[in-house]
Amino acid sequence: MAFLQRITSTKAPAATILIRIVVGAVFPSEGIQKFIFSDEVGAGRFAKIPIPNADTVAPLIGGIETVCGILILAGLFTRLAALPLIAIMLTAIFTTKIPILLGAEFMGFSLRKVSYYGIWGFLHESRTDLAMLFGSLFLFIVGAGRISIDRWINRSKRSSSK
Description:
mainly alpha; 9 helices; 73% helix; 0% strand
């Protein structure tokens, strides 16, 4: 099976579009905000965590979130687009939510002030991160679903190869 056919194949139901809408709306919104509100959620926030080279990394992450989120929303190269988003969410949880779970700085990553720490604080603060992580994992596993450009590409590729 050709690479393009493998990454665009999907047998997921049409309802998969609901997951794509959520994941595909949240990531571009967050990515764009890293540019608009750089001090609060972009380079300034990354520097406080601390993420090395925050002035370079934050716009890079913002760009990836924006582009990959739009690809997922369109259902175009959905599996490929989900991979960097999974990595971003794992990093976000590791660097910002694990300190909340532990109630202390973790491996040099700072602990920010929240209402409460431990498992309940972690679950509360990471609910969006976990939803985006598992939504992206789901899309990586099943693909874009019936209502997608991926499915159209895959069907076109199959019919032209016959």
